[in-house]
Design brief:
By secondary structure, the protein is mainly beta. Helices cover 10% and strands 37% of the residues. It has one domain (7-185): 3 Solenoid (UDP N-Acetylglucosamine Acyltransferase, domain 1), CATH 2.160.10. Strands 1, 3, 4, 6, 8, 10, 13, 15, 16 and 18 form a ten-stranded parallel sheet that branches. The chain has an eight-stranded mixed sheet with strand order 2-5-7-9-14-17-19-20, with no helix packed on it. A hairpin with a 4-residue loop joins β19 and β20.
């Protein structure tokens, strides 16, 4: 048994759009692919969950056991990715007592925060991290393992912790150089 869907199987899933050279594990779960757009050279590993309004650019990797809950929208630009066990929530119940919580409660009794989560180009998110609704991870931002992101991140900065705080700056010159070389080779 092959572990990734072949191109014919992928085309039959009904994605909003689907690029070339896409590898999606047969052990991943994609709910309503018509709300998901995927660029070129994308890999989605085993046991990932993708649901909601999701737009993946090109050259993206979603590591095993990661979950993208796109009720409020998730957009990952080119060359961004997640390590394993990353959870991205673009919708979440409020935990401040302003409403009841969980999906089994009628909406009129709930208090839900919803907003686009955007990974700009070259964003990396380390294993076990959590990204909460209405956040923009600036170009080249890097998030260390087991971090919690609840607000926007500056470009080309390294973050870690709960909540995530800046711990350094990320170099961009080599990344841009390699991106140009790679794109010229195509």
């Amino acid at each position: 048994m092959k572990s990734f869907y072949n191109e014919t199987e992928l085309r039959g899933m009904g994605f909003n759009s689907l690029g070339a050279n896409v590898l999606i594990s047969k052990m991943a779960r994609l709910y309503d692919p018509s709300t998901i757009s995927i660029g070129n050279n994308v890999r989605i590993d085993d046991f990932c969950i993708l649901t909601g309004d999701i737009e993946l650019g090109s050259h993206i990797h979603i590591g095993a056991y990661s979950a993208l809950f796109g009720g409020g929208g998730i957009k990952m630009h080119d060359f961004s990715g997640t390590s394993s066990r990353v959870s991205v929530y673009s919708t979440s119940d409020s935990f401040d007592g302003s409403g009841m919580s969980n999906t089994c409660i009628p909406d009129k009794y709930r208090s839900v925060k919803s907003g686009l989560v955007e990974f700009k180009k070259h964003v990396l998110v380390g294993a076990g991290s959590i990204i909460l609704p209405d956040t923009v991870l600036g170009e080249g931002a890097s998030v260390g393992a087991l971090s919690l992101v609840h607000c926007d991140l500056r470009s080309w900065s390294i973050y870690a912790g709960t909540p995530a705080k800046i711990i350094g700056k990320r170099k961009k010159e080599i990344i841009y150089k390699y991106e140009r070389e790679m794109m010229e080779a195509v």
